[in-house]
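Example 3.2
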Amino acid sequence: MTRSAAYEGHYLHYNTTVSESTKKITFRTGDLYIPTNQNGVRYLLETLEASATDSFFNWNFFDTILQQKEGYSAYVFEDIAADILAKNPVIKKQLEDKLKNEEAFAKNPRAQLEFVYKNSLHYEKAHLRLPVFKIL
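Structure, written as tokens:
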């Protein structure tokens, strides 16, 4: 959620929830690695963990991840979606399960197309992805 009035020039987010996943990613030249085995670990956790009350995310320094810059035209993507489903049985099975288990989703062709889009390689990877990673 986001406050409706600015405070200190920022529209603060609050009650932030995150979903975590484990993936292999490639870091690039210019990316920073900050070890947490140091005296400043509490500062790192309070500012870089999105759900922390005073995190950089909650102070809206990372709001660009909330903006989806890429999209699709339904009439163009329908054929692409059919091809994606034909070539990706996992996505097809997830879609079929969702159609069986969620009545509102089953009645909403736009939501179905959006589901395929968001699970395809066409979906913008930076959308809703905080550029802060933990190395395990």
